């Protein structure tokens, strides 16, 4: 099955689950990192120390690596930006297939961890001190990097989901932030009746948040354990998932939400114009929107954030979209040293503070989540709202973790097609999920899985 999975990772490389959650690119070469100090994007000054190569793309990685190398005499990091998200994954996949050319440590979006761990491309960190840092993270964040008893990455950041909304639109039309999805629909109906903007958007090109909303409703689309990697359970068309997809299909059908692809100039322009009353997104979204020009000029002071509406308010559920980890690759010649780097590289106070104050990351390290500076931070984008304390920290702490698809972008590409069919009026949500279930079962069988 390992060889068959080699073709399953980058089958639709342009359709990324967490497109904006991975942040922007930064300096650094495009060539594979090596232990040769001359090839590193940040100079290594302690030339007597052993070197660990790292691929990572967050905008502040230069600062992070400088902090690490300055504070460590026992090991130095040779960092390279080998591409952002899909570009890096394609290069990493080539190295995995060839059995050579991979870095010692690689940044991965959280939902890509199972794709590479099932190819035996990542090291189980339980034998290299992972338990020593487990307490630095919430249970959900740790569950995301675990499979059975194995741990395949060290969390950096996450994307607890919430509902951003336009205060100007809500005030103009007398809308109160909805706390349930029923209330969300009712608000959309009120906006439409009053000639107001769309309540939100249901994009086909980013299916990951839709999966999260399915999980919020109690769905468990994927079940597997890396200790028994040939066994897989797929339950994409459960009643819980169908309720969610039929709900959004109904919003589209009734003209209450749009169907614009997100992370495009058209979508951003619409968000700035106030074409959408809400943006269902994650804690990294303010940084993304700020970088795209939202919240400035005439758009300043128009945004606030509220907890994600619930399917069952008596049993609230927090979900996550995005975030990244540092994983040790199986090609690392000294996995113990590489594991030390994975655990310590983006974990010092200076780097974490730089990450969240620059809106590069929403950190998952408890040292930040419990710090008064982070808790009481008044968000400039949200007009002084204490968004961390009010919304994002409670969501992060309540998150219980997910089991992600082992098929990476292949699954997301197929789900994108199904959502596009919903938005075109060609299928109901339930029909789309029945088709998706059949397609993924067939694909899993082709990849050598035994379906339970």
UniProtKB/TrEMBL annotation:
UniProt keyword terms in alphabetical order: Signal, Sugar transport, Transport
InterPro entries for the chain: Bact_solute-bd_prot1, SBP
Signal peptide positions (record): 1-20
Domain of life: Bacteria
Gene3D superfamilies noted in UniProt: Periplasmic binding protein-like II
Pfam families assigned to the protein according to its UniProt record, in alphabetical order: SBP_bac_8
Stated name of the protein: Multiple sugar transport system substrate-binding protein
Organism: Modestobacter roseus
